[in-house]
Amino acid sequence: MAVSRKSLLISLAILVAAHSIEALNPNVTRIQFYMHDIVSGPNATAVQVAGRRTNYTGSDPIAAMFGSVFMMDNPLTATPELNSTLIGRAQGIYAMSSQQNEFSLLMTLTFAITGGTYNGSSFSVVGRNPIMSEVREMPVVGGTGAFRLARGYCLARTFSFREMDAVIGYNVTLIHDLYDYSG
Q: Which residues form a coiled coil (predicted)?
């Protein structure tokens, strides 16, 4: 009987602690935007900075790209149209990380918000992005400004893809600190 009473007390303590943590930090922000990854043309926002050291002679385009690394400074907009309201920039690196059967990227990027309520704030994402999947989930690993102590996830969905240029829709859920760091 003592073991079950002890288990009940421990379970109750964990429940109270979890509820207390949520009560201290219930700030959840959901953001939707579109990232424009422009690889072609004179106004490219993503450029290849490293690639394979060997000449690939096979016919698999995925294997041919393995090891390619791109640096990006992509615009973030409110709608899929590039000329819509600019809300920020996605700055970081992505690399072709799969050798076969799947087109996958390893991404490390920071979404820097440059307008609106969250102007000057940012959050960072690091993770695997299997870009041929309809919806991809990646973790949010931190943030600054209004998103300080952020954690959460983002769901990415390709809106359009043409000649290596892509528009990707992001739905982001952030859990972050409530403290006002503005002054």
A: none
Using a 10 angstrom Cβ sphere, with 0-12 exposed, 13-18 middle and 19 or more buried, the burial of residue 51 is middle
Task: Indicate the range of 13-17, 33-37, 78-82 predicted with least confidence.
Answer: 13-17
178 or 163: which carries more pLDDT confidence? 163
Match 């991404």 to its residue by tokens. 107
Residues 6+ apart with CB under 8 A from 79: 34, 85
From CA 2, how far away is CA 44, in angstroms rounded?
68
Q: Closest Cα to residue 118, out of 35, 31, 36? A: 31
Q: What does the domain layout of the chain look like in residue ranges?
A: 25-177
Quickly list DSSP for 114-138: -SGGGTT-EEEEEEEEETTSSSEEE
Measured CA to CA, the distance from residue 48 to residue 4 in angstroms comes to 61
